[in-house]
UniProtKB/TrEMBL annotation:
GO molecular function: glycosyltransferase activity
Cellular localisation: Membrane
Protein's UniProt keywords contain Metal-binding: no
Family note: Belongs to the glycosyltransferase 2 family.
Major enzyme class: transferase
Stated name of the protein: Beta-monoglucosyldiacylglycerol synthase
Gene3D superfamilies linked: Spore Coat Polysaccharide Biosynthesis Protein SpsA, Chain A
Keyword Magnesium: yes
Lineage per the UniProt record: Bacteria, Bacillati, Candidatus Sysuimicrobiota, Candidatus Sysuimicrobiia, Candidatus Sysuimicrobiales
Listed PANTHER family: POLY-BETA-1,6-N-ACETYL-D-GLUCOSAMINE SYNTHASE (PTHR43630)
Catalytic activity: a 1,2-diacyl-sn-glycerol + UDP-alpha-D-glucose = a 1,2-diacyl-3-O-(beta-D-glucopyranosyl)-sn-glycerol + UDP + H(+)
Pfam family, one: Glycos_transf_2
Amino acid sequence: MRPRATNRLVLATLAAVWLGAVMHSLHYRDYSWLQVLFVDIAWIQALLLAVGALGAFMVLVGALSPPPRRTGTQPAGPFVSVIVPAKNEEAVIEATVRSLCAMDYHDTGGPRYEIMVVDDGSTDRTAEILKSLSLALPVKIVRTPPGSVGKAAALNLGITRARGDLIAVCDADARVAPDFLLRMVASLAGSEAAGAQSQRRLYNAGQNLLTRIQDDEYRLFYRPLQRARQVLGGMVSFSGNGLLLRRDVLQEVGGWNDEALTEDIDLSLRFHLAGYQIRYCEEAVVWEEAVPRLRDLIRQRIRWFEGAMRCLGDHLPAILFGRVNFFKRLDMLSFLSGGLIVTLSLLTTYLYGVVDATGAVVLYIQLPRKLTTWTSGLITTGVLLAMLVELRGRVWEIAPVLVRSGLFSLHRLVVVPLAIHRYVRSAITGHTIWEKTTHGVPVPPREHDL
């Protein structure tokens, strides 16, 4: 079934199930002259507690799992093609190319990697800068044909020009240490994994409140989540920047999906559903730029949220009935639909509030109070403990993180409705809006260490 048709079917099914659940939860009863409306909200509470408990459990497991120790690197192995898709990246592309060209992945015959920048129709000085760099550095420049749109299309073009058996992907704002490729390639050696994702960090984390919040996400939630997935056998995912994969497996699963808004999540799902594993290589770090402006961050998160829903629509049948273990299936469903479940649950709760205007006596049927209180308390305790471990015992940092996270959660009031609107429109019309993240902050990267 084609992705668009699958999205339509999944969208219609989810809407019907949710509407049916809402209608089923409402029961009128007449007691003489008194009309009573019983509203069952226990199912919403159960969904929210389940999503929260799984998330807290995974973050806590990741925080308590010891990070890998840095080990000595091995000599360069298979030839690696490093592909950098770029569109209007004049502010960052030169530093990225110089950082990648400085990697220490050589043998006695010279470098065992190539750098390829795919210029996706840039209209600024990106092409001019790349041409100048190519005169002094071993960088290959590929330009997409007219009409090509999006990162996935640029990457697929790059694959056709690449020489390596291993493919690395870095964004146009990436900064890496000289031993980056050595550590990434070593993480695949001797394992059954077909891909690896490095640890992502932010080199302008201290620029303003928004960048600090994103740094909180990366350090205190994304990092332990990826670590937990590796420990528990969940869905370790590619994150778009600083990844390495086997070319033959990439071609087997069909390359990058040109229609995907979040091509990294889409590719991760197809790797896992095809039976391949992805490793989290925490000892290799890729530094990138946090989004410093609220408008740009909102656009990015709308694309992320809509992209996750599209992936759910595209792959839900395979996730439900494919050959993956139970925990990985649960992880996939929670990751792709967790935010949607929370949002729809809150919206449904607001809808229930409207029934008070009917004039009937409204009684809410809830889960036992002790169950919700204890479960919520355990979820909160687990998250706080995980944060404390990741902060290495610095208790005084928890309060600022909680305040920043609380403020940041308000952005979902804007992001989620817009993302849902775009997803529904795209599923019906087939029209997709793809907006790239704007790069270009005049802040030097920090030291390349953990």
